[in-house]
Amino acid sequence: MSRSVLEGTRIGTWQWNVQTGETIFNERWADIVGYTLDELAPIDINTWLKLAHPDDLPESGRLLEKHFAGQSAYYDCKCRMQHKDGHYVWVHDRGRVISWTKDGKPLMMYGTHADITEQKQAELELKASRDQFQALVANIPGITYRCKADSDWTMLYMSGSIDPLSGYPASDFINNSVRSYASVIHPEDQSRLELDVNSAIAEKRNWLLQYRLLHKDGTMRWVEERGQAEFNEDGEVICLDGFILDITEEKSLKQQLLKLTSQLPGVVYQYQQWPDGRAAFPYASDNIKKIYGVSAEDVKHDATFLFSKMHPDDLQGLAQSIEQSANNLSVWQHQYRFFSNDSHPVWLSGSATPERMPDGSTLWHGYIEDVTATKQHYFELERLNKEYRLSQQRLDIASETAQMGFWQASLKTGELWWSPVIYQIFGLEDSVVPSVALFKSTLHPDDRQLVANSEQKALETGLHDVVHRIIRPDGSIRWVHELAKMLPAEQNPQQIMVGSVQDVTERIELQQLKDQFISTVSHELRTPLTAIKGALSLLNSNKLGQVPDAMHRLLDIASSNSERLAQLINDLLDMEKLIAGKMPFDIQPLAVVAELQQAVDNLQPFAMQHHVDLVIEAVGASMVLADALRLQQVLTNLLSNAIKFSPAGSDVKLIAQQQGENVQIVVTDKGAGIAPEFQHRVFERFAQADGSNQRQKGGTGLGLAICKELVQQMQGSISFSSKPCVETRFVVSLPIAGIALSADSKGENA
């Protein structure tokens, strides 16, 4: 009977002699694993062990030993068996020991063997589904819940994400086992939440709430809750389902954003425009009051009235820019004028990124600021640029007319920039790239060292001032005057020099013609003038007889004028020799004090005639390198000028002092001084402050020019300073004896 029942349930059976291993299975047992009993023969306990999954054997052995030890009434094990086709099936083995050996060991054991593969598969699928759901809920950045619609919001289910948000586990809130959810809601928010939720339930709609939770550690967290009620067929509330999200950081960032936007000079905004033309600012920072003179609430739902305050001239352009941005979804950028509360328009500059909304409207996210001050600066800059361009045009015209160009060069890198006129001066094509090397290639061979010396001097003094010749590509020679300045080396590592160059060919040629004319006239006048002077001297000596008194005065005047003319001719000839480099120099060590004393002795009668005292002061100066004759010529000229222009009863000082490797000889007087407007011409030829035909002090206008040439030929320099009616100083600087002479001073001029 029992066997028939088992066969009807398709359950396999087995009996096992635990001591011998002999085992008996029925056909159903073999069928479960895809075999017949004949295929499994011979059958013993090893047949089962071979088909069982290796990973399940330890657990099977443990359960068997537990039953043998009397700790369980049955051996009950679920394990996997390998099917004949190779896959595994799940089986449920259940049995018990029914007889024991005399010494208490298990002998015979009977049991059942049921196929539970489908049941196990369903369990595994259910577990996988449950695990997937739990993983999904756990990964949601918020809390899912189901609760009763009571005052405590008694939780029926709550995900574990409540733990970090409140500091309490979800189990505390389930059925209010430890505390209610309402107990962690901020007291100030509870009545508002209850009112909003009840209102949503009554209207059978969803709710969206923001409120505060009190954390276990005493801090406060902001949350956003979305929920809805579930109703039965009778319209009664069954439960409430919802989702709670932590928005504490979002709230904090929003507060920071509000603080930041309040510090911005402009307005951060969202501008929305619908196809029907309606416009609004869904969001605008508080500074919209400064920009448009309205509050954010005033334009939150309708802002079309603002267009009436736009400047009429800018309204069309503004509308077109908005339309273009909306059509192309391109960034909007525009500047326009807006009439604020007063009658004066302000310039506004805006930019925004558009976004198409589901209802067909366009929403811009952007920023607008007042740029009135910037615009005014821009307009002023435009005005100045126009003036600059006009000035530049005038300068270009003047530069071209005067044949003067401007340039900037780096003596270190060889880079050179120059203005267009220089192309004309040097006869070069406009396509030629200027460079220092190109410039030097144009220099006349005889003037290259002159230019190099001037550049080297500029490194020391900061001034480059030289007149030289250039050779144009067509072979013609032009004279140019370069004048430039260079900053000190510590401020100018690239050795940049900025200056001008002017074509002075006509001036040089004119000067050469004038010099030739003066030279010719001087030589032609010298012989007859000598005869005239001799005749006048003979007449004045009375050797030819007594001259009448009336004629004597005329002869004195003629003699005086002939002396002045002779002096002029001598000065002209000296200047000619200096310029031509034909004046001989005998440079040798000279005793400074002796030279000063000789000059004073020579001019003492002239000083007494003008009631002026001559004073010598020598401080640390002993020997100087110079030509004795030329040095006396310089000192005589400077002293005679100082005496002539000094008031009666004053002193003229002759001071000698050492300055580094030079001796400075200074001539000072307390006369009227040199007028500021004339000072730049002091060392020019024929330059005289008193240019009238009846000059009070006399002179040829060549003395100081000759002094400059003489001093420079002796490797020295001459300068002056003058404060009218206070003091005038002429300073001659010459090398101390012992300093090597240059090649020029030892060569053809020696």
From TrEMBL:
Domain PAC positions: 75-128, 207-259, 464-516
Gene3D superfamilies cross-referenced by the UniProt entry: 1.10.287.130, 2.10.70.100, Histidine kinase-like ATPase, C-terminal domain, PAS domain
Domain Histidine kinase, first and last residues per copy: 520-738
SMART domains noted in UniProt: HATPase_c, HisKA, PAC, PAS
Reaction(s) the record says it catalyses: ATP + protein L-histidine = ADP + protein N-phospho-L-histidine
Pfam families xrefs: HATPase_c (PF02518), HisKA (PF00512), PAS_3 (PF08447)
Residue ranges of every copy of the PAS domain listed in the record: 129-204, 276-329, 391-462
InterPro entries: HATPase_C_sf, HATPase_dom, His_kinase_dom, HisK_dim/P_dom, HisK_dim/P_sf, PAC, PAS, PAS-assoc_C
Protein name (database record): histidine kinase
Keyword terms, alphabetized: Kinase, Phosphoprotein, Transferase
Enzyme Commission number: 2.7.13.3
Name of the top EC class for this enzyme: transferase
Organism: Rheinheimera baltica
